[in-house]
Specification:
Largest sheet: 5 strands, parallel
Strand order of the largest sheet: 2-1-3-4-5
Distance between the termini: 54 Å
Mean pLDDT: 86
CATH architecture of the largest domain: 3-Layer(aba) Sandwich
Helix content: 25-40%
Radius of gyration: 18 Å
Number of helices: 8
Number of strands: 12
Number of domains: 2
Shape: globular
CATH class of the largest domain: Alpha Beta
Strand content: 15-25%
Structural class: alpha/beta
Order of helices and strands: EHEHEHEHEHEEEEHEHHEE
């Protein structure tokens, strides 16, 4: 078995479709139709990954995600939110409470399975450029790789593991434009061509956290992002 997936979805037909496709790929699957059942199942058997619908009949997916992240047994379990709500504020809120990715309905079951595989691989594959002992000083920002710490003007900036990985990738390529596809491939482990706003949403959240150092991440319209050494 490739891994155990918990599917949290109150639409029976969709839950069955997703479960079927995951099982075809060799995953074990458990299904929960509401938030309370999802929390109980996750506590009973912590899964390797959770597909979590945002709109549930009792607790919201946001609240379920928040509670999962607050419990030691499920704090590090990857969570992909699956929802019909695609507004940017929903994506940002989902990432704020600890979601790893965001898939908007309707979606291709095949693409969803590919994303599941990519997120699971990401958890076991270090960034190729993550070398022990490296420290980057970029303007007012310092990235300490061994400590997994980022400071701006000497003050620590709390980043998720994925945000740190994204920032480090941009730092390694500073001065060069990084396309969205290349970032998805290196940081998220996705194959080129997968349609997602994940990169843009994470960059937006990263900039908010970096404060005065946010301007070092430059948007190159129609292409991607570039880390600058300094800003005049």
């Amino acid at each position: 078995m490739r891994g155990h997936i918990l599917v949290v979805e109150d639409e029976t037909d969709l839950a069955e479709l997703v479960s079927f496709n995951l099982k075809q790929e060799g995953y074990g699957v458990a299904v929960a139709a509401d938030g309370a059942s999802a929390l109980a199942e996750a506590r009973r058997q912590p899964p390797d990954l959770i597909l979590l619908d945002l709109m549930l009949p009792d607790l919201s997916g946001i609240e379920v995600c928040r509670r999962l992240r607050a419990e030691a047994a499920t704090a590090s379990v990857p969570i992909i939110m699956v929802t019909a709500r695609g507004e940017e504020i929903d994506r940002v809120l989902g990432f704020e409470v600890g979601a790893d990715d965001y898939v908007v309905k309707p979606f291709s079951p095949r693409e969803l399975v590919l994303r599941v595989g990519a997120v699971l691989r990401r958890g076991t594959t270090p960034l190729a450029t993550d070398e022990p002992g490296e420290t980057f000083d970029i303007g007012r920002m310092r990235i300490d790789v061994p400590r997994h710490e980022v400071c701006v003007d000497g003050e620590p900036v709390p980043l998720t593991a994925l945000e740190f990985k994204l920032l480090l990738d941009l730092a390694h390529g500073r001065g060069r434009v990084q396309t969205r596809d290349s970032l998805l491939e290196r940081v998220w482990g996705y194959a080129p061509g997968i349609e997602t706003r994940t990169v843009d949403t994470h960059v937006k959240r990263l900039r908010e956290k970096l404060g005065a150092a946010a301007r070092y991440i430059e948007t190159v319209r129609g292409v991607g992002y570039r880390m600058r050494d300094s800003v005049s």
